[in-house]
Amino acid sequence: MKFTAAKNDLMNGVAIAIRAVPAHTTMPILECMLLQTEGQALKLTTNDTEMGIETVVPAQIQEPGTIAVDARMLSEIVRKLPDSVVSFESDENDRIQIRCGKARFNIAGQKGDDFSFLPSVDQDESITLSQLTLKSVIQQTIFSIAANENNKIMTGELFEIKGDILRIVALDGHRIAMRRVALKNSFDERRVIVPGKTLLEISRILSGEMDEQVSVFFSRNHIVFELPGTRMVSRLIDGEYFNVDQMISTDYETKLTISRNEFQSCIDRALLFVRENDKKPIIFDITDGEVRLSIDSPMGSFDESIDIQKEGRDLTIGFNPRFLLDALKVIDDENVTLYLVNAKAPCFIRNDDDTYTYLILPVNFVR
Q1: N or C: fewer beta carbons within 10 Å in the chain?
Q2: What is the DSSP letter of 168?
Q3: Residue 40's pLDDT is what?
Q4: CB hemisphere CA count around 75 (13 angstroms)
Q5: d(Cα 298, Cα 300) in Å, to the nearest integer?
Q6: What angle do CA 228, 168, 227 make, to 5 degrees?
Q7: Around Cβ 29, how many Cβ atoms within 10 Å?
Q8: Residue 279: which residues within 8 A CB-CB, separation 6 or more?
Q9: Given the DSSP bridges, would you call strands 254-259 and 309-312 parallel, antiparallel or unpaired?
Q10: What are the C-alpha distances in Å from 323 to residues 24, 66, 175, 318?
């Protein structure tokens, strides 16, 4: 194999592909990136058996071929090369020479025969979203997945299609984050659970541009994200997702509308008195015209009142302040509306057109 490529093109391609290289594995071949010539381009492939990525880099091919290279070594070499044209050549003994400017590296490669190629997935029907939309809805929900794997289903997100609506749901047992996206066309009903790791990685690859598209394909066991020059394939999580509709209620006894910016800033100030693993709740005293937020901890105490518009009865209730802050940070509206029933029932934050819903369970407290 022999090719040349611009350093920046190669570096960008390697940075995308390396996201599917496992941090720890008993299979050394999975620590490699497969390099294949494809016409007058170079294809980079990685696969950790749960998620795989293919991305294409512009290159000038002198000799076609295939070789596997330690992915992290290749990444470090390319990143530290001078900004110039990179020359890459391998011999019959799978030794690789990389040259750029006056820098020269010689490293060992491997034959790609044992490399685990990406599975073939039927791509007859897809939904198409702007890269900005998909990136946004992932960022607006991913914080609500479970951090541990005691319940595997909670480590992923539900992608549910009904007609021309895509609903994305994440929950961890204490809160729910839900976003709805209108699609351009109607599709058959579908429910799949996508691993949180996959969604984090695709969100980092997406450009975030409204005029750039991403196509999403589903099969029984896999999901495929396809964008210009890059394809990601991931296994889905087996199992039946929770019946979220049973958890969502439109009943309320207290409704309050509040400035999102004031609310977020107040909670941020309260968190000065909460250590990282502390479970101290922030207490809401809701009365006509205002809500008083207070927190009391061994580090000190804090309270602040914010003007609100209120419907219904007065209420005192406590919440994990970080859960509230996570939701408020990803809401763009100037004002947010909270719906509450009593001190033991969940709080719902949602807008009038139901494009987002956040459920947060209350916390018991003693004064």
Answers
A1: C
A2: E
A3: 87
A4: 18
A5: 6
A6: 0
A7: 16
A8: 320, 363
A9: antiparallel
A10: 31, 48, 8, 12
The answer on pLDDT for 277 being more than 80 is: no
- Is the pTM of the predicted complex or chain greater than 0.90? yes
Non-local (6+) Cβ contacts of 336 within 8 A are: 257, 258, 260, 263, 328, 349, 351
pLDDT tens digits for range 81-138: 998 899 999 999 999 999 999 999 999 999 888 888 888 887 777 899 999 999 999 9
Alpha-carbon distance 306 to 259, whole Å? 9
Query: In this model, does residue 21 exceed pLDDT 90?
Result: yes
Return the percentage of the chain with pLDDT > 70, whole number: 100
Burial zone of 358 (CB within 10 Å; 0-12 exposed, 13-18 middle, 19+ buried): buried
Biggest alpha carbon distance in the chain?
80
Query: What backbone torsions phi and psi does residue 132 show, to the nearest 5 degrees?
Result: -65, -45
Task: Using the structure block, give the residue that is written with the tokens 């804090």.
Answer: 302
Phi, psi of 246 (to 5 degrees): -70, -20
Q: Which two tokens stand for residue 205?
A: 């690859």
Exposed (0-12), middle (13-18) or buried (19+): which is 154, by Cβ within 10 Å? Answer: buried
Taking Cα atoms as reference points, which of 49, 27, 40 lies closest to residue 110?
27
Alpha-carbon distance of 116 to 52, in angstroms, equals: 9
pLDDT of residue 367: 67
Q: Which helix (H) or strand (E) holds 186?
A: strand 175-195
- Dihedral Cα 197, 202, 208, 212, nearest 10 deg: -160
| Nearest in space to 33 (alpha carbons), one of 60, 81, 66 | 66
Q: Are 17 and 44 contacting, i.e. CB atoms less than 8 angstroms apart?
A: yes
Q: What secondary structure letter does DSSP report for 210?
A: T
Q: Helix or strand or coil: residue 25?
A: coil
**Structural contact between residues 281 and 320, judged by C-beta atoms closer than 8 angstroms:** yes
Q: Is 327 exposed, middle or buried (0-12, 13-18, 19+ CB in 10 A)?
A: buried
Helix (H) or strand (E) holding 171: strand 156-171
